[in-house]
Amino acid sequence: MTTASSPPGPPSFGLLLRQVRDGLMRCLDRSMAELELDLCFGHYLGMKALAHMSPCTANELAQAIDQNPSAVTRLLDKFQDLGWVRREAHAQDRRALQIVLTDEGRALWQQLKQRGDEAIASALRDLSAAEREHLTSLLTRVRDSLNSP
Question: For 65, which of 24, 28, 95, 100 is 20 to 30 Å away at the CA?
C-alpha cells in the first residue's frame, strides 16, 4: 500500500527500516506518556541499558546507547533527581563514578519493559511465530554483515 508520503513502488530497504523504527518509537512514546513522567525513547534506552549493565560508568553507558557523554550526563542527572539511579565511587578507579540503578529505577524499568514488549507485540501481531523468528534471523544477519570488517 502506498501513502501520500511514500513514493510509488516498493519502499527502499533503508526507508522501510527507518519507518519501522520510527513507528515503534512513536508507539512506545505514547505508551510511556501515560506514566506522566515526561519520558521518551532515549530514556527507555538508557533505563534498558542500565537494567542490564548496572553498575557501570557513564562512559560505558554512553557507548552502549550510542550517545555522547554530555547527553548521557544530562540523562543521568534527570534519573538521579528522580531517584532512579545513584552515583557511587568506583571500586577500582577512584577517579570514576559508577552508576547504580536504585530499587525505584528497577521498578520503573519493569514498567517500561512491559510497555516496550507490548509495542513490539503490537507491531508483530500480524506475523506468525515462524515469521517473527525468520524476520529476527534476517535482521540479525543484516546487522552482523554491517558490523563485520
Answer: 95
Spatial separation of the C-alpha atoms in residues 104 and 92, rounded to whole Å: 26
**Residue 73, all three cell numbers:** 550526563
pLDDT in tens, 38-62: 999 999 999 999 999 989 999 999 9
d(CA 72, CA 118): 26
Number of independent structural domains in the chain: 1
User: Does pTM surpass 0.70?
Assistant: yes
Report the distance separating Cα 121 and Cα 142, nearest Å.
22
Residue 134 within any structural domain of the chain: no
Residue 104 is part of a domain; what is its CATH number?
1.10.10.10
pLDDT digits (tens, 9 = 90+) for 69-100: 999 999 999 999 999 999 998 888 888 889 99
- Whether the CB-CB separation of 124 and 134 falls below 8 Å is answered with no
- Note whether residue 46 is domain-resident: yes
- Does residue 50 lie within any of the structural domains? yes
Counting beta carbons within 10 angstroms of the beta carbon of residue 112, is it exposed (0 to 12), middle (13 to 18) or buried (19 or more)? buried
For the record, the C-alpha cell of 139 comes out as 535482521
Closest to 28 measured CA to CA, from 18, 42, 17: 42
What's the domain range around 62?
39-122
